[in-house]
Design a protein that fits this description.
The chain has helices at residues 8-11, 20-31, 34-37, 39-46, 48-80, 87-96, 100-103, 106-143, 149-164, 173-194, 213-224, 227-235, 249-272, 289-325, 331-352, 357-383, 394-425, 428-432. With 450 residues, it is mainly alpha-helical. The relative contact order is 0.17.
Length: 450
């Protein structure tokens, strides 16, 4: 894309900017979460060598999609000579300068971007509440009498409320740093259990069955990227030009994450084999001090990640929908009310539907395919419609392949997610369809709590 005289980075004005280090810790925190704990299950489906290859390839493709998206957003801002252009605004503008049929749908596609972003991060926030509540419930149940999960969900929701009232990402950085420390303390303790009693690696399959690879991608996609938070961090940086590039903050964080995913995937599957569950923490004992410390550490880390995930949905609802089209005397109170309702509704949602993994798998597959691959390719094709697609039209070929890949993930996500939800909530489907946790040796109908 052509670089004109206007530089959006030089004209961007952020109220409370993030330093490069702030952005790095926030980015690391938004990617490293509950998904990494499910990577051993992903390797169960793909095998050790298959899991290594597919994890690296998946991460590279998704990170390329993020780089392409951010470059297109900057280009959209440059062409309009404005400091910053959001994802939805970039989509709307790109379609307005693309082919004639795109112009009629420009506003609708812009709205769809915000809707998918808001719903996906709302779903992730609900899962975070459930994850924390379930881990705390296990610890309390071990030491004291048993209480229902809904009580722990309600308590977690109430404790999250004051934390979620923090409006600026800058003020969440200390929590993100502490959360990263707690998360990696928990990871080190998990490794203590994973390295104990390792069987011969020859006992584990190197490659999974082809029909099970789709289950791998469902987990890997959820574990690698978080589009909305990644964009929110870039938008708040003091030096956003340092975010992408070969040695940019995004690539550095992604490299650390992919190594973490590989370590967990390989060691978790190597240690537990066909017995591995949806989260490796469910395979760990609950009667030792080390296991209790790691569960507390990881639960607290996820607890402090909730405000970062919910930030995206609040920003869309408040700043891009409510405040953009209306003028209020006290806009901050509008945001506080929206934040209160977000915590309240996500808590009620977690109580009413405590088994949200099918929904999250469905939303995850849909959002990743659309937000990371299909939409960025559409934006670039439209922005370059009146210019050039390069020698032999290689950009057109490349973006077409991205759209095809995204559509394949989208179609599978619709099918697999819908079937999994039916199996979970409709008992008749458990006897009719193949269950989610599939083994080459046996078929089970066990569903994890999350």
């Amino acid at each position: 894309m052509d670089n004109g005289p206007y530089n959006p980075y030089a004209n961007r004005d952020v109220e409370t900017p993030l330093t490069n280090l702030d952005a790095f810790f926030s980015l690391l925190k938004c990617i490293v979460g509950t998904g990494i704990l499910a990577m051993p299950k992903a390797f169960f489906y793909a095998g050790i060598l298959g899991g290594v290859i597919l994890t690296i390839v998946t991460t590279m493709v998704l990170m390329y999609g993020m780089h392409l998206l951010i470059k297109c957003m900057v280009e959209s801002a440059r062409q309009q000579e404005i400091p910053y252009c959001t994802y939805s605004e970039s989509m709307t503008y790109a379609f307005s300068v693309g082919p004639s049929w795109c112009k009629r749908w420009s506003r609708w596609f812009g709205f769809m971007v915000n809707l998918v972003l808001a719903l996906s991060h709302y779903g992730i926030a609900v899962v975070y509440i459930l994850f924390v509540a379930k881990n705390v419930q296990q610890l309390i149940h071990y030491h004291f009498s048993f209480y229902g999960l809904e009580i722990f969900v309600a308590v977690v929701g109430m404790l999250l409320l004051p934390l979620f009232m923090v409006r600026q990402l800058k003020y969440l950085v200390p929590l993100n740093v502490l959360s990263n420390v707690l998360m990696y303390v928990g990871f080190l303790l998990i490794f203590y259990y994973l390295f104990r009693g390792l069987p011969p690696i020859a006992d584990r399959r190197m490659f999974g069955a082809f029909e099970e690879l789709l289950e791998f991608f469902g987990i890997a996609l959820f574990a690698v990227t978080s589009v909305g938070v990644m964009l929110a961090i870039e938008s708040k940086m003091a030096t956003p030009e340092k975010y992408i590039g070969c040695f940019g903050i995004l690539n550095i964080a992604a490299t650390i994450v992919v190594f973490s995913n590989l370590l967990f995937g390989i060691l978790g599957f190597w240690r537990y084999g066909d017995e591995i569950r949806g989260s490796v923490t469910l395979n760990l004992p609950t009667d030792t001090v080390a296991s209790q410390i790691l569960k507390i550490s990881i639960a607290l880390a996820i607890f402090m990640t909730y405000p970062l995930s919910g930030y995206v949905t609040i920003d869309i609802i408040v700043h891009q929908w409510l405040l953009k089209s209306h003028s209020y005397a006290h806009p901050h109170w509008i945001e506080y009310i929206a934040r209160f309702l977000f915590v309240f509704l996500s808590t009620i949602n977690a109580i009413a539907f405590p088994k949200l993994s099918p929904l999250v798998a469905l939303v995850g597959s849909l959002t990743i395919s659309v937000l990371n691959l299909i939409f960025p390719a559409f934006i670039e094709l439209c922005l370059l419609y009146g210019a050039s697609y390069g020698r032999l039209k290689w950009i057109l070929v490349k973006d077409t392949l991205l759209v095809i890949l995204g559509m394949a993930i989208l179609v599978y996500g619709l099918y697999s997610g819908t079937m999994t939800m039916l199996r979970t909530y409709h008992p008749d489907y458990k006897d009719t369809f193949k269950c989610l946790n599939v083994s080459t040796k046996s078929i089970t109908c066990q569903f994890d709590d999350l």
